Amino acid sequence: MKKVLISSVLAALVLTGCGATEEVAPAEAPKGMRDGAPVAVTLSAQDAAVYPKKTPLIERNWEGQPPVIPHDYKKSVNLKKNSCLMCHKPAKPGKKAKATPTHASHYDADGKLDNLFYNCHQCHVAVSDGPAAIGSNF
Predict the structure, then answer these.
(1) How far apart are CA 82 and CA 85, in angstroms?
(2) Which residues contact 70 (CB under 8 A, 6 or more apart)?
(3) What is the rounded distance in angstroms from the CA atom of residue 17 to the CA atom of residue 9?
(4) Is residue 88 within 8 Å of 102, Cβ to Cβ?
(5) Across the chain, which distance is largest between two alpha carbons, in Å?
(6) Range with top average pLDDT, 42-46, 94-98, 121-125, 130-134
(7) Which residues contact 56 (CB under 8 A, 6 or more apart)?
């Protein structure tokens, strides 16, 4: 009796799930940055950013903000090499650093760069004289 009852309840659930459902209209797709232009349309590129040769230190906007990069950084980080560390690694005792050294929080207990901080451009951005790509009210 118990097997028959369980089998009939399961069959009723399966048949209920297979019943006709009401069709739902698809939601409107988001417009994105192209502002409604179809993907096939090629939009003109903006002028390339101009990076100054040397800039003074730039004041930070909030406490804890990563410092901005005051120079061009093309081709500096890839999977095999982080060229930022050629100049920004901590100086050896008794020697002067080439540039502002990487903060101690970026290194693990063994003194090796923590992989979480390998991609410098994830937090640090370069200063540019180019136009803003996207408006901001920040």
Answers:
(1) 6
(2) 52, 54, 55, 56, 57, 58, 126, 127
(3) 12
(4) yes
(5) 88
(6) 121-125
(7) 70
- How distant, in Å, are the alpha carbons of 31, 36, 86 from that of 81? 37, 39, 10
Q: Are 32 and 101 in contact (CB under 8 A)?
A: no
Nearest Cα neighbor of 105 from 95, 116, 94 is: 116
Residues pairing with 77 in the sheet:
82
Higher pLDDT, 31 or 8: 8
pTM: 0.48
Token pair, residue 48, equals: 């390339």
d(CA 7, CA 53): 78
Contact between 82 and 113 (Cβ < 8 Å): yes
Per-residue pLDDT tens for 38-57? 667 676 776 666 665 666 67
